[in-house]
């Protein structure tokens, strides 16, 4: 173990040098955050970014579990690092995501340059445990939720795509067995081009993630999957999938490497166009069970749903702010339409509902972070966010009138994306 850590320390210098030399962190004024968050982690070591054969050769590592945070009552006060993270993500959303969003939605393509931003900012290293080359020393679920919310203030779809690999790392760290972590988790510190995503949703009416048509069959210690998953984010380019499937009547999650047994078909949706959603068909696909004795499928879903809720909060905030600006600038009968009581009340309702959504999401995340039961709170958060985010999107379109129905304004895109909150289960992970 000592030799591995020494090696990681040496390789860490390479990573730090690479990040320090990146123009991106200076352009976005993120150097202070990077230095505070990443540089101290070099004492436990980083792995150098390098090319990989994506063979996922197992490595000898100890099973990783991030400890829960020691905290008392739910505290709304953010730490200094969380405030810095929020400021950084706000700036990134405004200066990078928002300008890319329209064309990405129109072309239904995820901008490849975002992956370089992710690499330069060291996003995945925030999810990786220190022992495997990252900087995570304890569960940071609230911070992950804040990242999702603030990024979604720029664009919902791009945030979902950008956080897909980040979320898989979270899930592998939280639930992965020793064998799974040894085979897959270590490679994310070594290969910046490695992409991963979730395949949970199925093409059934009123989809229930606990009643799955995709089947897993055991062959000794190995498994094969047969079935179909839809609305898989970045499913054509991912190297690794976390797939939900029925095993002996119980829902479970499996780790799947891309191979010839998996076929992908484009399945463009009403929203999330920039995420290049596809339908995946599994035909006797080799798989590994994600977790072991401590795996909790319900919590797995809850943590994923909280990420969608957080993004709904961020995008709803964007709708509200855009409507305020529009209502103050748009005149009718000689005065701004914001002077009309009906308009002002509609925007005020948006603000109230957003704060309620945010409080429920943060409360659930805080409980999860402390290792306390949070299923009830996560369920309530999803119910509220699913209902209110769709209402906020609808009200945003209505407030803009005819303009809300055109692509000249981003509200129609946000309206389409926000509807995913009520439909998708998991697909991300805090």
Give an account of the 3D structure.
The protein is an alpha+beta fold and 430 residues long. The protein has helices at residues 2-20, 23-27, 31-37, 80-107, 113-121, 141-152, 156-162, 164-175, 178-183, 297-329, 341-369, 375-400, 411-418, and strands at 196-199, 215-219, 222-232, 240-247, 250-257, 262-266, 278-289, 331-332, 335-336. Strand 8 (331-332) and strand 9 (335-336) form a beta hairpin. The chain is globular. Mean pLDDT is 86; it is low at 1-20 and 38-53. The chain has 13 helices and nine strands. Helix 3 packs across helix 4.
Determine the N-to-C terminus distance.
Answer: 29 Å
Would you tell me which CATH topology of the largest domain applies?
Butyryl-Coa Dehydrogenase, subunit A, domain 1
Average of per-residue pLDDT values:
86
CATH class of the largest domain: Mainly Alpha
| CATH architectural category of the largest domain | Orthogonal Bundle
| Structural class computed from helices and strand pairing | alpha+beta
* Strand composition percent: 5-15%
Total domain modules: 3
CATH homologous superfamily caption of the largest domain: Acyl-CoA dehydrogenase/oxidase, N-terminal domain
Q: Classify the helix fraction into a percent range.
A: 40-55%
What's the tally of helices? Answer: 13
Largest sheet: 7 strands, mixed
How many DSSP-defined strands? 9
Q: What is the gyration radius calculated from CA atoms?
A: 21 Å
Uncertain runs are 1-20, 38-53
């Amino acid at each position: 173990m000592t030799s591995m850590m020494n090696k990681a320390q040496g390789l860490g210098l390479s990573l730090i040098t690479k990040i320090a030399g990146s123009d991106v962190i200076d352009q976005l004024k993120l150097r202070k955050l990077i230095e505070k968050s990443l540089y101290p982690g070099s004492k436990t070591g980083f792995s150098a970014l390098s090319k990989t054969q994506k063979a996922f050769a197992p490595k000898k590592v100890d099973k990783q579990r991030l400890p829960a945070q020691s905290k008392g009552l739910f505290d709304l006060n953010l730490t200094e690092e969380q405030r810095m993270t929020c400021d950084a993500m706000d700036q990134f959303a405004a200066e990078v995501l928002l300008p890319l969003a329209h064309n990405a939605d129109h072309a239904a393509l995820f901008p490849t340059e975002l992956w370089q931003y992710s690499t330069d900012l060291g996003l995945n290293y925030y999810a990786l445990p220190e022992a495997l080359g990252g900087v995570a020393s304890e569960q940071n679920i609230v911070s992950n939720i804040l990242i999702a919310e603030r990024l979604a203030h720029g664009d919902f779809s791009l945030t979902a795509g950008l956080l897909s690999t980040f979320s898989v790392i979270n899930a592998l760290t939280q639930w992965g067995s020793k064998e799974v972590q040894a085979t897959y988790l270590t490679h994310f510190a070594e290969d910046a081009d490695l992409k991963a995503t979730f395949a949970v949703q199925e093409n059934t009416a009123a989809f229930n993630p606990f009643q799955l048509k995709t089947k897993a069959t055991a062959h000794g210690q190995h498994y094969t999957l047969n079935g179909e998953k839809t609305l898989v984010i970045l499913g054509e380019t991912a190297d690794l999938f976390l797939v939900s499937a029925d095993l002996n009547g119980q829902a479970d999650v499996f780790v799947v490497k891309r191979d010839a047994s998996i076929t992908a078909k484009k399945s463009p949706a009403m929203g999330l166009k920039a995420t290049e959603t596809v339908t995946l068909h599994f035909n006797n696909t080799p798989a590994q069970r994600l977790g072991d004795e401590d795996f909790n499928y319900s919590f797995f879903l809850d943590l994923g749903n909280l990420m969608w809720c957080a993004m709904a909060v961020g995008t709803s905030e964007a709708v509200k702010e855009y409507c305020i600006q529009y209502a103050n600038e748009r005149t009718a009968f000689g005065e701004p339409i914001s002077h009309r009581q009906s308009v002002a009340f509609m925007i005020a309702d948006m603000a109230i509902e957003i704060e309620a959504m945010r409080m429920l999401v943060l409360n659930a995340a805080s409980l999860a972070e402390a290792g306390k039961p949070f299923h009830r709170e996560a369920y309530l958060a999803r119910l509220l966010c699913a209902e209110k985010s769709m209402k906020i999107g609808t009200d945003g379109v209505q407030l803009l009138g005819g303009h809300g129905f055109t692509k000249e304004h981003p509200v129609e895109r946000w309206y389409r994306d926000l509807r995913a909150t009520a439909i998708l289960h998991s697909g991300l992970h805090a």
